[in-house]
Amino acid sequence: QVQLVESGGGVVQPGRSLRLSCAASGFTFSTYAMHWVRQAPGKGLEWVAVTSSDEKTKYYADSVKGRFTIYRDNSKNTLYLHMNSLRAEDTAVYYCARAEGFKLDVWGKGTTVTVSS
Amino acid sequence: QSVLTQPPSASGTPGQRVTISCSGSSSNIGSNYVYWYQQLPGTAPKLLISRNNQRPSGVPDRFSGSKSGTSGFLAISGLRSEDEADYYCAAWDDSLSGRGVFGGGTKLTVL
Question: What is the predicted pLDDT for the residue at A10?
């Protein structure tokens, strides 16, 4: 079945880096744009970044621009989010989602990132 | 402060009809589709309404969406206890070279 599984979350100190992964299965990953969306504890959804199917187009939220990088490996059916210079306010559950335009029709269950000293 | 504005809460009794609004601007809802997502407690969001008013397969026809100008609306008729959840509107925003934007979310309580 169509599935997205995030991994790579954990507890990290402020200023350090972390890489999240999103493994896709059950669909032709290489033909879909993919997004990262996060949710801080007790807060609403915040869009983070998107990459087109061929990585030619990428957009980022202002809050992560210059610190986070979204990329993908279509040969491995995997989406990534590399996060540098992490801050306490980056603490959240991070979801990956499959997209057609901004229609996010398949979501993973999320992976939790906690930035704390 | 979210780019899209939703009421933080809404409520209704079983069987009632409830409407949730989502106010945006010309750079997002005014020029792009509105999407609605339902998030049940402790779970990932789920696509509820696509492209202003389209229901994905499996979504009951009790849920409907509409758009007028720079606002979107989600209506839930025949309210049921299992509809108690957080609801988020979303749209692509053409300003600042492009970005996705969500509303702050509306917590729906079924009394």
Answer: 97
* Burial per residue of A26-62, b for 16 or more beta-carbon CB atoms within 10 angstroms, e otherwise: eeebeebbbbbbbbeeeebbbbbbbbebeeeeebbbe
Rounded Cα–Cα distance for residues A17 and A84 (Å)? 4
- On whether any CB of chain A is under 8 Å from the CB of B87, the answer is no
CA-to-CA separations, A28 to A37, B2, B105, in angstroms, rounded: 21, 33, 31
* Beta-carbon separation of B96 and A62 below 8 A: yes
B43-A113-B100 Cα angle (round to 5): 65
For A55-85, how does the pLDDT look when each residue is reduced to its tens digit (9 = 90+)?
Answer: 999 999 999 999 999 999 999 999 999 999 9
| Whether the predicted pLDDT of B96 surpasses 80 | no
Residue of A nearest to B105 (CA): A44
